[in-house]
Design a protein that fits this description.
The chain is mostly helical and 133 residues long. It has 2 domains: 99 residues, no CATH class; 26 residues, no CATH class. 53% of the residues lie in helices and 0% in strands. The chain is built from 4 helices and no strands. The mean pLDDT is 90.
Length: 133
Amino acid sequence: MIDVARDAEGVRKALEEIFEEDFVRARIDRESAGATPETKERMQRQIPRRTLSPGYYRVAEYLLAIDAERRAGIVFSLRDLCCWEVDGLVALDRARGAYESRHPACSACGARQDTRFNRECSNCGVKFRTRKK
């Protein structure tokens, strides 16, 4: 049996899947305004399926809660966190970095983009600058 909390790579993958689920749900919420129930149901099927054991997602959600407290200004000492929690928070930072690289935020409205290669925001339509060659 795998000790899920100590499988940092599996937890990182679960976190990335959670981020992608949230991204797709946010896009569906924006696009489904005024849609028929059948269309909404079809759109809900676009949400990616989870690939890991439920324990990975429970640990990932626990780490997200700790991270939310940390970002809110609660300071943790070394005595407050277990080794696996520290490893999990490192995995969370890696997963968040990978997600933010794949889906950069629009500088105008903050909406996450489908890809980092978009030429304009999918939410507000602002044009992005492109690099000159």
